[in-house]
Amino acid sequence: MMVFWLVAVLLIAVALLFLLPPLIQKLRGDSDEDVFDRNELNTAIFKDQVAELERDLSVGIVSQEQFEIARHDLERGFLQDAHGETNGETSAPVSQTDRVVGRSAAVVVTVLVPILAVSIYNMLGSGKAGLHPEEARPQVQAEGHEGTLEEQVRKLQDHLQQNPDDVEGWGMLARSYYFLKQYGAAAETFARTSMLIQDSDAGLLADYADALAMSNGRNMAGRPYELVKKALEIEPRLQKALWLAGTATYQSGNLEDTLGYWKRLLEIFPSGSENYLQMQKNIAEIQQKLGLPVDTEIQTAAIGGASISGVVRLDESLMQDVAIGDTLFVYARAASGPRMPLAIVRKTVKDLPFEFTLDDSMAMNPAMKLSSFQQVVVGARISKSGNALPQPGDLQVVSRPMSVDGVQGLELVINEVIQ
Which of 99, 141, 328, 371 qualifies as a cystine partner to 306, CB 3.0-4.6 A? Predict the structure, then answer.
């Protein structure tokens, strides 16, 4: 508040510095010293102009006749200026009446400018909120009543003291505590509310579990998980309860149950929605951690791009030509265009037969991914040297051109020796 008024006073003072000096100057009038200074200035200017005319005459810029006419004009102008100043034509003395009027005008400006500034700001600016910002607290609308949230909570507390069986009021108070991040108070109030309705509201139980976990450092173990399971018994497809249950089992390391909750959520979310895509990624992550095959549809959505999956085998006729430590490359490249792999994975012969998945996450260059091309070829090569470039003696297979739109079950049999 003090800063606001200091700034306001400084701005008003600046405004007065522009308004008062002309009035004060008029009030004082021009002194004899001022007139004397101007006479000296006029004389100096006159002498300079005559000297310049004489130089023009000496170099032939003007004739003698032109010189005489110009000099005569300069002398006449100089005499007129001097006569006007000495007779008060340009600086008339200030009368007593003028002094009184000027003094009154200065006082009026000094007093009225601050008053008008504050009054206009009060009417057109922020009003009381601007003049007294500490009194202008944010207001919220709650059940048709105005006031801050803290004020509404106090009113609700007073109301519940008189009406302890108001279930709706207790629920509103619990959610208000949660909104204010008073999670301990929210959990206690949810507990009382749930007891009043004999744990029959699934949504309330989920909210209770959430508040209890938040008050315990976001830990869903123990009582919060029990509340969530009870909520799911009442309403098996309750989204918040499924989210919390999946979080609880994930925190405890029970990934099998987590996968079950995530899949139930996936069935609820609209296909293609943000939650649906996020849940697909969660499911793919859990399946990978459990060592389970990732569903092709889920994997494609999880990586956010194209994918090709299949298996690589070695033709039996070439079994004697390789060693178990030889390097195996499985790759995809554009059917036409750059030959640099769009996705590649490296294994060894001992991994054969090898089930592979190539996707955008395996790109060697982020600007060149599987999803950037409509047609690709998929290849597998066994390299004795471990060199990524094909060498004579390497064994390989290259597929026909194919689409990158979720190809699965592709079978590659290495049956060719590079000459």
Answer: 371
DSSP state of 146: E
DSSP tag of 386? -
Its pTM surpasses 0.70: no
- Encoded tokens for 367: 């600007």
* Dist CA 35 CA 87 (whole Å): 11
How is residue 90 written in tokens? 């340009």
Host H or E run for residue 308: strand 307-314
In angstroms, the Cα distances linking 229 to 147, 175, 216, 302 are 38, 21, 18, 28
Boundaries of every domain in the chain: 2-124, 142-299, 306-417
Q: Are the C-beta atoms of 106 and 16 separated by less than 8 Å?
A: no
pLDDT tens-digit profile, the chain (419 residues) = 555 566 566 666 666 665 556 555 555 554 444 444 455 656 666 676 777 767 766 766 656 766 676 676 667 666 655 555 444 444 445 455 555 555 565 555 566 666 666 666 666 555 554 545 444 444 444 444 445 667 788 888 888 888 888 888 888 888 888 888 899 999 999 999 988 888 889 999 999 999 999 999 989 999 999 999 999 999 999 999 999 999 999 999 999 999 999 999 988 888 767 778 778 888 888 888 888 876 655 655 555 557 788 999 999 999 888 988 899 999 999 988 778 888 889 999 999 999 988 887 777 776 788 878 888 999 999 998 888 888 999 999 999 998 876 678 899 999 999 98
Structure token digits, residue 43: 């004389």
Instruction: In whole angstroms, give the CA distance from residue 89 to residue 380.
Output: 108
Instruction: Compute CA distances 205 → 175, 189, 258, whole Å.
Output: 12, 12, 20
Kind plus residue range of the DSSP H or E element containing 343? strand 343-348
Q: Which CATH superfamily is domain 142-299 in?
A: Tetratricopeptide repeat domain (1.25.40.10)
Helix (H) or strand (E) holding 11: helix 2-28
CA 271/CA 322 separation, integer angstroms: 47
Q: Give the C-alpha distances (Å, rounded to integers) separating 271 from 59, 245, 280, 295.
A: 98, 22, 10, 16
